[in-house]
Write a structure and sequence with these properties.
Largest sheet: 10 strands, antiparallel
Radius of gyration: 61 Å
Order of helices and strands: HEEHEEHEEEEEEEEEEEEEEEEEEEEHE
Shape: rod-shaped
Structural class: mainly beta
Length: 446
């Protein structure tokens, strides 16, 4: 190996008589061969002490090689993760205050059980798991005022007192069974469109021992006013069978939103859904007795004793009429013309009293006109007059009787007199006389 000349400053090399801080030409490679690498030849340095001076041109020693990979103390602490802030951790850490559930001895921190009565002060917010309140009452309200959902299954819960004091914004509560002896207040405005929607719904029955208010109130006259509906059974989501109340009516509607019946709240009427479309009962389901203190109005009639057309009673009417003694052209003068009638179906029963004060121009065959209804146009359906009383007549012979019959398709009664052996003849004006007074009745058909 060729000899190299090295100049070493401020190096103390024991065993080679090199004075500290001195200079010497190094030709004994065995002394320093372990400290340097020359021409890719590695030399092991067994004992080198450097005191003072500086060494330049050397790169940072990597952490993997036992170094700090840094050239400054701050960088070294940061690289090694030791006290990067540069504080002195060699002394014990102290804890300010006197929380007896935490103790520090040297570098050891001991945590004991926390006594909520003595160790904790102040109010723990709801967001941190507390009640956000300093009193029990306020805590009860705070704990439930923002509940979004409560589900309790297979249990029975009893709430005594005004439980609604805190249930102001609960949006969904599901219980297995609930026994309320206080007040349950639900302010949700969601409409119910099925058995599982709306503010309150149940899979079972709902028993109510008191009044139920449906989005309305009683007015000063005791009428319940509401524009909301009570669902009986549900059709589609949009339409439902229901009971709906307004200011004047309580209405039953079907799933097609058609009125079935309406009850007027002034108690004046129960109305059908429309004219001639709603039956009261059916052939298979019939009502029993009907007790009425008023009248029955049937536009097409009432069937009695059966459902065939022959059982139809389609008209009943009572009224008055004015009888007139006439020859068909001229009328007599009267001072009494009292007539009444009762019409039952096709049968008309008329009664009258007729008293004449002057025959005037009346002559020949006479009749009584003014019947309240035109007689039927069927042959053989003539009505028959029955004379109950007659005075002031000029019949000529005692024992004759006055009779009569209705003319078909007309409004008058032909008067007859049983005055011949073979039957009767038409009564004449002179036989009635100017003072004739008669009481009679007729039953005829229309």
């Amino acid at each position: 190996m060729a000899a190299y000349a090295w100049k070493v400053l401020d190096v103390s090399v024991s065993g080679d008589n090199l004075p500290v801080g001195g200079q010497k030409l190094i030709d004994n490679w065995a002394v320093i061969a372990s400290a340097f690498t020359i021409d890719d030849t590695t030399f092991d340095l067994t004992a080198v002490t450097i005191t003072g001076g500086s060494i330049s041109g050397i790169t940072d020693l990597a952490i993997a090689d036992g170094g700090t990979a840094a050239s400054t103390a701050a960088a070294a602490r940061a690289n090694l993760g030791v006290d990067p802030a540069g504080t002195d951790n060699s002394t014990n850490v102290t804890l300010a205050g006197a929380p007896s559930y935490i103790t520090i001895a040297g570098q050891v921190i001991t945590r004991a059980l926390v006594n909520l009565a003595s160790h904790i002060t102040g109010i723990l917010p709801l967001a941190n798991g507390g009640t956000g309140s300093a009193t029990l009452t306020a805590a009860e309200v705070a704990q439930v005022e923002n509940i979004n959902s409560i589900t309790i299954s297979n249990a029975q819960w009893a709430f005594v007192g005004a439980f609604d004091q805190g249930l102001t914004t609960i949006s969904n509560v599901s219980f297995g069974a609930v026994d309320l002896s206080g007040i349950l207040s639900v302010d949700d405005v969601t409409d119910s469109t099925s058995p599982t929607t709306g503010s309150i719904h149940t899979d079972g029955g709902l028993g109510v021992a008191k009044d139920v208010f449906i989005g309305g109130s009683y007015n000063t006259t005791g009428e319940f006013i509401s524009s909301h509906a009570l669902g009986i059974s549900l059709g589609s989501v949009a339409n439902k069978n229901r009971v709906q109340a307004s200011a004047t009516e309580l209405i039953l509607l079907n799933s097609s939103n058609q009125t079935i019946a309406a009850f007027l709240l002034d108690r004046s009427a129960i109305l059908p859904g429309g004219t001639n479309i709603t039956d009261l009962g059916s052939g298979a389901l019939e009502f029993k007795d009907a007790y009425l203190s008023g009248t029955i109005v049937a536009g097409t009639g009432i069937k009695l004793g059966g459902t065939a057309p022959a059982n139809l009673l389609d008209d009943y009417e009572e009224g008055t009429w004015t009888p007139v003694l006439s020859d068909g052209t001229n009328n007599a003068t009267h001072d009494v013309q009292n007539g009444t009638y009762t019409k039952i179906g096709h049968m008309v029963h008329v009664k009258a009293r007729l008293r004449v004060t002057s025959l005037g121009s009346v002559s020949g065959d006479i009749r009584i006109t003014g019947l309240p209804f035109t007689t039927t146009n069927s042959s053989g359906t003539n009505g028959v007059l029955t004379m109950g009383s007659a005075t002031g007549m000029a019949l000529g012979t005692a024992g004759f009787s006055i009779n009569g019959f209705t003319q078909v398709n007309a409004t008058y009664i032909n008067l007859t007199l049983w005055d011949v052996a073979i039957g009767n003849t038409n009564m004449q004006a002179t036989e009635w006389s100017a003072t004739g007074d008669a009481i009679f009745e007729v039953i005829y058909y229309v």
